[in-house]
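We close this part of the discussion by returning to an individual protein. In the encoding step, the backbone of a single protein was reduced to a row of integers, each denoting a local shape. The sequence in question and its structure tokens are set out directly beneath this paragraph.
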Amino acid sequence: MKPRVLVARAVFPDIVERLRSHFVVHDNPGDDAWSQPELIARLQGHAGVLVAGTERIDAALLAACPTLRAVCSMAVGYNNIDLPACTAAGVLVSNAPDVLTETTADFGFALMMATARRITESEHFLRAGRWTHWSYDLFAGADVHGATLGVLGMGRIGQAIARRGALGFGMPVLYHNRSRLDAAIEQQLGASWVGKDQLLQRADHLVIVVPYSPASHHLVGAAELALMKPTATLTNIARGGVVDDAALAVALRERRIAAAGLDVFEGEPAVHPGLLGVPNVVLTPHIASASLPTRRAMAELAARNLMAVLGQGADAGRPPTALNPEVLPLRA
């Protein structure tokens, strides 16, 4: 009898059909937002689940779903999944790195440019019928070319943003990361490591790309924002909670920094009301990886992992991007 798997969010129908050739599939074509009790109820008797970055997989869920063997996410971040609890329960977890790096970096750079050049603010002005004449300082923003790019978090996406800044826009690149890059990579990127405080003080445009963890919660808060230049911009494409949104709203309202571009929010899809009331912020609904080819690649990789963990397809027994491969012998 075929194993049962759950596809917890709406994904490309042909990928769901591909899974149906190997499994009994229950999916969510309406993309309903399931509560944790609903998710637990739907997972009963299932061997695997394909999730996005929103479903909470924790010890309580694992205890209530003893047949679960695989949690395969189509996101790169996995702060919604309790990895140690999954490992202790013998549940394989996978994510989707690499396939979204360049698309996310494109978006991050675009969001930073829109923030620096006040594109959203000026569009709202135009749409409201307020544009009546030209003036020398009409929505005059900050230059991007030649300005100092600061990257907080220098993983795959951070490096891709650094390349765009250094090679495409002639930007000096500063970065801070827990681990310093090899000298050869620094030279290739034209990037220099500095301490976190120095990064905040010197960057004209700060882009945040760190993964979320308890250690990175409110990594940028009121004290850090106070170190930034009043002319600087901040762009967050990392995860909600890395930036203290309440403190950022105050800094924007009081013009302690010039502007911000945000694709992620603490408690999303809710957005701190203070951010909705200031003009000098560009807000997007967590869409940094949202190109059709990339979202398809993310879903396909999650499906490959799911099939592999449950012994199906060309990768059977060898999930391509397992986060805790040590559990595989337990499930052999």
In short: The radius of gyration is 22 Å. Residues 292-309 form the longest helix (18 residues). The longest strand covers residues 4-7. The mean pLDDT is 96.
